[in-house]
TrEMBL record:
Pfam families: DUF2147 (PF09917). The keyword Signal applies. Gene3D superfamilies: 2.40.128.520. This is DUF2147 domain-containing protein. It comes from Flavobacterium suzhouense. The keyword Cytoplasm does not apply. Coiled coil: none annotated.
Amino acid sequence: MKRAIFTFLFVVVAGIMSVSAQVTGRWKTIDDETGKEKSIVEIYEQNGKIYGKVVEILNPAKKDAKCDKCSGSDKGKPILNLIIIKGLTKDGDEYTDGDILDPNKGKLYSCTIKLDGKDKLSVRGYMGISLLGRSQTWHRVK
């Protein structure tokens, strides 16, 4: 009986730890308006916060695109290697209280991301309240 309880607790703890670590990695972005694959974003943790940068642009015609509509320090930077997810913090089973940049529109939105299974990531960008925004589903790159 003790062995069964120990095994159960081990599986639960291992499952919780693996789910929290799964948000990091490489994700293929899918445009919610066109349904087309756009880029590969690498999500990583730095100083306890979550960030994401564009590590590959999938449309050959846009490989050298710059963030011309962006403001501040991102203005004119190449989209490749641009940090588009900034400063998310873990809140239960989602990451929130950070921003996401749409380099095509040059706009910065509040952001929430949440795993949808182990290989899908729900990404929501919004202004003000979460009801006023857009969601995308990104797919893990293996």
